[in-house]
UniProtKB/TrEMBL annotation:
Pfam families associated with the record: DUF4440
Gene3D superfamilies, sorted: 3.10.450.50
Protein name: DUF4440 domain-containing protein
Domain DUF4440: 36-118
InterPro entries: DUF4440 (IPR027843), NTF2-like_dom_sf (IPR032710)
Length: 130
């Protein structure tokens, strides 16, 4: 039932770079201030949360700014990364995240620009054990 996801060899360097950036908003080396999160997201960025709710970039930035005033203790492990090219310099990155006891499938659409990598969209879907 599961798809067989294998990243094309020509995308290996892209995959390696994007793996360093995920989980999105949880990598302190890319910054923890609002300006850092603004720099890593496109102006029209939005996300769909694990609840199914859609969130605007402004809302996400507000939540991140508040969260990083007193950073929570986080225990996470990311695995099963896969990268697919969607268009020139636009890539779909998928992976599984175990985060504070909850497992989700994650998707981020990334664009490579002159200034670096920019997230266009992000989604998290809770994995229901059946």
């Amino acid at each position: 039932m599961e798809p067989h996801l294998v990243t094309e060899e020509r995308l290996r360097a892209v995959l390696d770079e994007l793996v360093r950036r995920e989980p999105l908003f949880h990598r302190a080396e890319f910054g923890t201030a609002r300006a850092d999160f603004e720099a890593m997201t496109a102006p029209d960025f939005w996300e769909t949360g694990a609840s199914g709710r859609r969130y605007s970039r402004a809302y996400v930035l507000d939540v991140l700014e508040e969260r990083h005033k007193a950073p929570p203790a986080e225990a996470w492990e990311a695995s099963d990364f896969h990268c697919r090219e969607l268009a020139t310099d636009v890539y779909l990155l998928t992976y599984t995240l175990a985060f504070n006891g909850r497992r989700t499938r994650r998707t981020t659409i990334w664009q490579e620009r002159a200034g670096g990598w920019t997230a266009l969209y992000h989604q998290g879907t809770v994995i229901r054990d059946s």
